[in-house]
Design brief:
alpha/beta, 2 domains, 317 residues, 9-stranded mixed beta sheet, Purple Acid Phosphatase, chain A, domain 2
Length: 317
């Protein structure tokens, strides 16, 4: 396995001095292409946009301004959904199940674990045959409608939005293509969704991390726990909806959790799959703490149109 010659933090620190890919490549003894690839991963405008992007917040500055939120749950629940990719005039079965179950579950925390906004029209991926991506404005209106419904059914709960890579597509697009508009309040998710608190990660009880993405691959949930030195770790991004318990030398195991997708895999927004099979599952996750101890996470899984399974029951939605 190839070893990275420089970390994301080292690149972010170097970017404070220069955005010249040639200079950065020389500094880290890598190819300019390796630098550009990493800059894209970090959503940093390349050198040719450096002048236009002058004055815009860097990824490091955004992280500091949004950062991490911590909370404590002694006896209560968190409902966590991710990858809703909300589309106009389209509500998934998992979304309807969430609205149905929220009043019954009465969670103390509700987490939108990234990628509520899709942003296909401002993606670097080209449209597929016949695709007509929704405009960002139409998608944002759909996000507002769906997330307002969720907020109204979870009054009294702490509502957290851990940002995903799709959520920041609009900011990245503006920073590179229309930097003069990038700081308009009306285009800032934090202004558009005041009922939600934004962060990169949520820490619960100092032993559970919730964030949109970390490791990749089918064993990501388990590897996330190992990478976090035994903390339970909850991510979305991979759309696979599963729980992987990891034992250690203690009386408690940690859980690696993938929160699946609130969207439906067949939506046109995912035509880039080219009709290939994908280990994707629609649903969301319920996590319960008793006496500060995290119990086995529960999965709400869509088994068909208008039907989910939860706690050994098939529920009509």
């Amino acid at each position: 396995m190839a070893v990275r010659k420089f970390t994301d933090d080292q690149l972010l620190a170097a970017l404070a001095e220069t955005r010249s890919t040639a200079a950065l490549a020389k500094k880290f003894d890598v190819s300019p292409r390796a630098v550009v690839t990493r800059m894209r991963k970090l959503n940093v405008p390349p050198a040719k946009h450096a002048k236009a992007a002058q004055g815009l917040p860097t990824r490091a500055e955004i992280e500091r301004s949004i950062g991490r939120i911590s909370t404590t749950i002694t006896d209560g629940r968190a409902v966590i959904f991710s990858d809703a990719h909300f589309q106009p005039d389209c509500i998934s079965t998992a979304n309807r199940a969430l609205l149905k179950l929220l009043p019954e579950l009465r969670p103390s925390v509700v987490v939108c674990n990234g990628d509520a906004f899709d942003g296909s029209a401002v993606s670097r991926h080209s449209p597929m045959f016949g695709d007509k991506p929704h405009t960002p404005a139409a998608e944002l209106r759909a996000c507002q409608e769906r997330l307002t419904e969720i907020a109204e059914l979870s009054k009294g709960a702490l509502r957290i939005w851990t940002l995903g890579n799709h959520d920041i597509r609009l900011h990245t697009y503006l920073a590179t293509s229309a930097p003069a508009l990038a700081d308009m309040p009306g285009l800032d998710l934090r202004t558009l969704f005041p009922e939600w608190k934004f962060c990169w990660s949520l820490r619960v009880n100092d032993d559970t991390v919730i964030k949109h993405r970390y490791r990749g691959g089918m064993y990501a949930p388990a590897n996330n726990v190992r990478g976090a030195l035994g903390m339970s770790f909850v991510t979305g991004h991979l759309h696979s909806l599963k729980v992987m318990p990891i034992s250690a030398y203690s009386d408690r195991c940690a859980y690696g959790v993938d929160t699946g997708m609130l969207a439906e895999p067949e939506w046109s927004a995912f035509n880039y799959r080219e009709d290939s099979p994908a280990d994707w599952r629609s649903g969301f996750v319920v996590m319960t703490w008793r006496g500060g101890r995290l119990l086995w996470p529960e999965v709400v899984n869509v088994v068909g149109e208008g039907v989910v399974e939860f706690r050994g029951e098939l529920i009509q939605i």
